[in-house]
Amino acid sequence: MNLADTDTQTATSPTTALPVVAVPGVEAWHVESNVVPMIALSFTFEGGAAQDPEGKAGCAQMLARLLDEGAGDLTSDAFQERLAARAIELSFHAGPDALGGSLKMLLKHADEAIDLLALALAKPRLDQDAIERVRAQVIAGLRYQQNDPGVMASRRFFREAFAGHAYARPSSGTIESVAAITRDDLVAMHARLIGRGRIKVAAVGAIGAESLAEALTRAFGSLAEAGELLAVPRTEIAELGRRIVVDLDVPQSVIRFGMKGIPWRDPDFIPAYVLNHVLGGGAFTSRLFQEVREKRGLAYSVGTSLVSHRSAAMIWGYTATKNERVGEALSVIGDEIGRLITEGPSDEELQKAKDYLTGSYALGFDTSTKIAHQLVQIAFEDLGMDYISRRNAMVEAVSQADIRRAAARTFADGQMLVVAAGRPVGL
């Protein structure tokens, strides 16, 4: 069936998703919209860089970069030419817990786009010349990053925070680990990660449910069942209270800091999310922005975010300041965390945070690609198809008691793991 010739139904609300089941082990969340003749597809497979073999960090990311470097009978050049000729956008990526991708195409080119996606997933060539080309690109990037204080601080932070755990390894690998990756490693990684049974899919655009089911069958139906994943045990951020210096001869230090976190699936995640906005998540209104930048001019940027991996969660923060003012900046950050522990936010602060978080949520759904990405992430976290309709109400319901409970679980006694790359004075 030609997907471009199929009739579609009246478009639903951009946040109304309906399930579409194709072959066993493949289900998509579907939002139909006929505003433009375009389809956006987002998908993710459970298991990512945390599945890299010992001593082969970067394997999952290399595989993701190689999936569109030729597939089936098409060489890398031929595959890319087919994509370019039809303005098909296909990309793959790998994070700590998942390998995923996205596909965007005009409705009239949907059949060819789906066929190319199916080839890339089921029959990647993994030609040796492509492997060496991608390896050289990755290693060149890693060499460049050796002089980047932000990268060096982040890598050291994760190495200390999750020592001995898969999350301690950089997802992009090291020069030594990337050099050690073989074609056999990539083939084995493909068999372990890419298969039916652990895939989440979201589709948004001018395609009806029946046509989508057919497209999903063509795209993913030829995949074997996914292989067995390596166990990734739950862990927590370690070394709280420790301060580490990565010695770099630069005029200012780049700082990374972290505390305990709450995972997305936890009932206290939303209160922690609101609390984080008050502390450092609000671009211009957060306490850290006001105290560190606006009042004292210690840094150009400062902020925090919640990191929720499959097996670990934390509040992660960043800033950069002159070497001689690192101690002062960290003292201010610590003081603001302490105030939130003992006093909490004011009622006005709490309401402003909730107003912003509910009002800005719709901005994450202003394109088909964004909607597809949001849906597949919600599906991956197993939050339920109605999460979008529930989310703002959950934010609005956060009380001061909820905030205090979240602060007790995350800030604890105010201890942080701090890593500063530079030559900070008095740290």
UniProtKB/TrEMBL annotation:
- Domain Peptidase M16 N-terminal residue range list: 40-170
Question: Mind telling me which InterPro entries this protein's record contains?
Answer: Metalloenz_LuxS/M16, MPP/UQCRC_Complex, Pept_M16_N, Peptidase_M16_C
What Pfam families does the record point to?
A: Peptidase_M16, Peptidase_M16_C
Give all residue intervals belonging to the Peptidase M16 C-terminal domain. Answer: 181-356
The cross-references to Gene3D superfamilies, in alphabetical order and at most eight, read: Metalloenzyme, LuxS/M16 peptidase-like
Protein name (database record): M16 family metallopeptidase
Taxonomic source organism: Methylobacterium komagatae
